[in-house]
Specification:
Length: 299
């Protein structure tokens, strides 16, 4: 019974990693007349790299014309994962495979009394029975409760940039592919230490009251193409948790580079869409590509 309740809650809430929303809740935007899109000059094909916001409101549309133009030019779309195959049912199944305690332990037994008390308080505010979360690991609870809070505030995963563009690609018959799989993403978070998982949960629970303003600031900075502001918003808080930042952001950025370079070398025309946090900072995809000698122009 408890596991079926957990399954229902995850089915309602779970989206692929929301670490930007979990950790990035402070800062202000400094407007520029850009989008969060880069064109890579290779002389062969057209490679565009777009930073995505996974949760948006319908009022955030239409997108910047530069993004729509890049979509029209690109022959294919490349996401973090292939969104056509990673439907909500698949993600829910994979999450339960990794995210349920199989040793009989409960959430309460795996986190401090202080963190559990805060989780129970937040669950009550969201209308969730904390008992339904009992079989889940802390990382699943963090992402699930964050997702539910964002939906409560009017942010919709189906209105996220990646989901929107995937929908357009399906309608227009453009092929889609992924840099990694949903199973890999979920497994990556599941490998975090117990300490890092609890830190992630505690940070998300403490920041829920700030999510509305925090994500609004992120969206404004993203829409304005304000790289310094978005770097501050998305990365500064994550750097307080270096193991999480390294595993979830930096390592994956470096793992994607050979795949992006292969597209460049083959003269492909593609729009690469990844979470905005992966494009900012010295270890972001944009700066890593520049360090390899590529010229990129922010559109």
């Amino acid at each position: 019974m408890i596991e079926s309740q957990s399954r229902r809650i995850i089915g309602l809430a779970f989206c692929l990693p929301l670490l930007a929303a979990v950790f990035a809740l402070v800062g202000e935007s400094r407007a520029q007349e850009k989008s969060f899109l880069w064109q890579l000059q290779s002389g062969k094909g057209h490679i565009y790299i777009l930073g995505s916001i996974h949760f948006l409101k319908r009022e955030n549309y239409p997108l910047n014309p530069a993004i729509e133009k890049a979509f029209d030019i690109a022959k294919k779309l490349v996401f973090e994962i292939d969104l056509k195959s990673a439907d909500s049912g698949t993600v829910q199944r994979l999450t339960l495979e990794k995210g349920l305690h199989r040793d009989g332990k409960t959430l309460q037994q795996n986190i401090s009394a202080e963190t559990y008390s805060l989780a129970a308080k937040r669950a009550q505010e969201l209308g969730i029975d904390i008992g339904a979360l009992s079989p889940l690991k802390p990382w699943v609870v963090a992402l699930t409760m964050t997702s539910l809070q964002l939906q409560k505030l009017g942010f919709d995963p189906n209105s996220g940039v990646d989901r929107y563009l995937a929908g357009r690609a399906t309608q227009s018959g453009k092929p889609m592919t992924g840099l990694e799989t949903a199973a890999f993403q979920i497994g990556l978070i599941d490998q975090l230490s117990a300490t890092d998982q609890e830190s992630m949960l505690r940070q998300s629970l403490r920041g829920m009251d700030l999510l509305d303003k925090g994500l609004d600031r992120i969206v404004r900075s993203w829409a304005a193409g304000d790289v310094p502001a978005l770097e501050e918003l998305l990365l500064n808080a994550m750097r307080e948790y270096p193991a999480v930042h390294q595993k979830i952001v930096v390592d994956r950025n470096r793992r994607w580079l050979p795949k992006i370079e292969r597209m460049i070398e083959q003269g492909e025309s593609a729009l690469v869409v990844v979470g905005a946090a992966h494009l900012v900072g010295k270890e972001g995809v944009i700066e890593l590509l520049k360090a390899r000698g590529y010229t990129l122009e922010q559109m």
